[in-house]
Amino acid sequence: MLWSFSPCLSAAQDPRWGRTYESFSSENGMVAELGASYTRGLIDGGLLPCAKHFFADGNVLYGTGENSEGEKRLIDRGDARLSEAEIQDLLKVYQAQIDAGVKTIMISHSSVNGIKMHANEKYISILKKDMGFQGFIVSDWNSIHNIPGDNLKDQTITAVNAGIDMLMEDSNFENCRKYIVDAVNEGKISMDRVNDAVSRILTVKRKWEL
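The structure corresponding to this sequence follows.
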C-alpha cells in the first residue's frame, strides 16, 4: 500500500478522549514539528502521507460526543468550541504539513463551533485557497452520513460542495457516485467543483502511481 493514513495531528486536551494515544502531544507546536518530520519521512520512503483529521478533533469537549452507529459517545466526534486565535494556532499545524509536501488530508468526524467538519466549506476552502494546498481532501470512514441532510443524497451534495474531493464509503460508493452525477445534472453541484476534485485526485494518483 502506497497511501498511509498518517500522520495524526490531534493535540488531545482531555485524556478521557479515547483517541488520545494517537496524539504526538497536547501542544500544537510539537505536533506541527513532529507531524511534519513524519510526513517528510514517509515521502522520503516513497509513501503518500494523509494528514488527519482536519481539524481540532483533539479539542472536542466532554459531553458533546456524536450519537451515531448505535453508539452514544460522550466526547469522541464531539464539538470543539474555539476562539479565532485558537483556530489559527491549529491551522498552523496543517500549514506545516502543506509546507512539508503533504498531498492528501482527511477531514475530522468532529465539529468546530457547532459545524460538522465534513460540511464546513469555510475551513476546507481556506486549506485550498489561502494555505496553498494542491492535493485532495478525503472524507473519514462513512462520516458524511452524520452531517445535516434529509438523506444520503443531500449529505453527499453537502460534502462535495463543502470541498471534499474523495468519499471514503465502504458500501454506499455506487449510490454516492450516482448522487453526484444526478446532482450535477440537477444543477446542485457545479462542473467546476467536479473538475476541481477530479483534477486534484488524478494529479496525485499520477505522481504517486496509485
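Strands lie at 3-4, 48-54, 67-68, 71-72, 79-80, 104-107, 111-112, 115-116, 136-138.
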